[in-house]
């Protein structure tokens, strides 16, 4: 990549999560120092307002006016930077032209998308162009799906070092969390439901656990899936479905395929939420399952979907207070075993802020920094990557040191 004016351009900085990413970058690197970065959006007035709100340190922060639906402005923007970091979603509605521009112009890219059908379209439409130009496109760089993707990668790395083998049966369980999903995540979910109702191909993609894998790896081992209250004999607790599992599992299977099936050709993986032991654990698992079923039914029906959008769910651009974000946290546990059952390992991944905003914004910011500052042009070819396959050890170091995440092996 030829020398460019900026290391990172943050697209969508006027939105709630985008502003949190901007705050993180200001705290970490300031403005006018070694890191060259800029804010981008379609309204100069709103960008100037955000710059003022970021404080005196940000007074000299460059601003770029670009519209998600104006390809000319996007081409001009991406040619000025090494990395585009975007929070403008739902990405199926507002992100396609930006991915196309980055893929065509050799600009690295990261986002917060968890929209499986859209990511599949981007892979099919722009994967070859990204490979040719050298652009590294990395989706799912927030709570969906860094804890899962990087957590399984960390588990398998430790298994190779400690046990001399990868572990082909892996379970991720959410042990504890405080804080909700973002309004943008809910908006993306509802948009996916609308797409699936209009297009049978979208529905087919959603059902395929290997939907995000390269074309020659879109079939494989039948995968387990927690769809109702279920007792887990490995963790000895009751479990319920995890709302992000349909996204995270696809990313983990993609990582396995991109790494040459380093987790195993018969790798099996699922995710769920721990609800506890005994009768109370079972009842809580049942209630969570019923609640998720009611949400899915409501999202599938036009009138109730409109009601959810208008009156129930948080809207994109809205979010909790700083106090609520700082009081949030999450902890997941990942258990891996070989098919014989005589080798096993368990790791934990935890975050020190609420999953949907505080922790997600730091994860995305550090992914952008790793792409801009740590990843050489020859270290990864262009293409559509996951966080772990694109950045691995480099991202792990940043997440531990600057994003408040812990990755640890659980002994005993």
From TrEMBL:
InterPro entries listed in its UniProt record: NAD(P)-bd_dom_sf, Saccharopine_DH-like_oxidrdct, Sacchrp_dh_NADP-bd
Any one annotated GO CC term: plasma membrane
Protein name: Saccharopine dehydrogenase
Pfam families xrefs: Sacchrp_dh_NADP
Gene Ontology BP terms: glycolipid biosynthetic process
SUPFAM superfamilies xrefs: NAD(P)-binding Rossmann-fold domains (SSF51735)
Residues in Saccharopine dehydrogenase NADP binding domain copies: 8-137
Family to which the UniProt record says this protein belongs: Belongs to the saccharopine dehydrogenase family. Enoyl reductase subfamily.
